[in-house]
Amino acid sequence: MIDRNAAEKAFMDYAGDFDRDDPMIRTKIIHTMNVTENADRIAGSIGLDGYERDLAWLLGLLHDFGRFEQVKRYGTFIDHQSTDHAELGADILFKDGKIELFDACGLLDEDHDLLETAIRQHNKLEFPTGQDERTRAFENIIRDADKADIFRVLVETPFTDRAGKSIDRFVKKDAASDECMDYIRRHRCIPRRLVGSVFEGHLSHLCLAFELVYDETRRIVLEQGYLETLLYKTGEDDERVWNEAELAQLKETRNEVRRALGGLER
After folding, report:
1. 235 DSSP β-pair partners
2. Count of domains for the chain
3. How far is CA 125 from CA 29, 180, 203, 207, 254, in A?
4. Residue 191 three-state SS
5. Which of 6, 74, 109, 159 is most buried by a 10 A CB count?
């Protein structure tokens, strides 16, 4: 078994070395704790218990370990303007040795590789091929748990607390491209390279719902209601209201998301 209280204390001690008055740091601590709860619930829903369920919980605790150093170095959470936070976190834990803080909580050495792989992959659009079933399950758990709380972050957290000083300045203000809409119609996430406007960015966030793996994650999302709020959002931070063409695309996206999440009770 993993001593969750000891692991959480080790995490908070590490986070305490950063400026907790910084709203970005506070945002990431809250997100991390929510993801641990999601991961624990998802793991239980698929029959994991004991150490395996603890391991999923711990993965939630460690998945964004690199975000703190990212803020300290770059002042932003935007990876393409700074560094890949998943790779940075895995490096800090497994190359710089910070994982030792959690070995003392009951983590087995033999699970280092699994945790490192899942942390490095949790923000990637596609997983590597040829992985074993256990590794893939933990990758799916953390991706689902993370996405479920991202909807909350998008609703509750001001944009500057998510982006920091490095903020995207989109020039394109038209409706979403046909290529973006094609991903939506195929129920796939929109690749970052295709996002050229604030509106396309909004649609790309909604598309996270398409690739949720577990029914329990979908239930979490439906219970929380944040996705529903985003599906009806008509502008971005009061700076821009979607035009008629964009509202039509938002409605289409809303229908596709509902179709993808259909058949489940809250």
Report:
1. 241
2. 2
3. 24, 15, 16, 12, 21
4. coil
5. 74
Query: Taking a C-beta distance cutoff of 8 angstroms, is the pair 183, 207 a contact?
Result: yes
In a shared domain, residues 216 and 135: no
What is the residue range of 102's domain? Answer: 4-154
Q: Tokens in use for 188?
A: 């796939």
**What pLDDT tens digit does each residue of the chain (266 aa) get?**
999 999 999 999 999 899 888 898 999 999 999 999 999 999 999 999 999 999 999 999 999 999 999 999 988 888 888 888 999 999 999 999 999 999 999 999 999 999 999 999 998 888 888 889 999 999 999 999 999 999 999 999 877 666 655 555 566 678 999 999 999 999 999 998 898 888 999 999 999 999 999 999 999 999 999 999 999 988 776 567 889 999 999 999 999 999 998 855 44
Q: What is the pTM of this model?
A: 0.90
User: How many residues are recorded in the chain?
Assistant: 266
What is the rounded CA–CA span in Å between residue 45 and residue 231? Answer: 27
What is the distance between the alpha carbons of residues 238 and 241, in angstroms, rounded to a whole number? 7
Residue with the two structure tokens 């989109």 = 170
SS3 165: coil
Q: Residue 236 pairs with which residues in a beta bridge?
A: 240
In a domain, 163, yes or no: no
Segments in 170-214 forming alpha helices (H): 178-185, 198-206
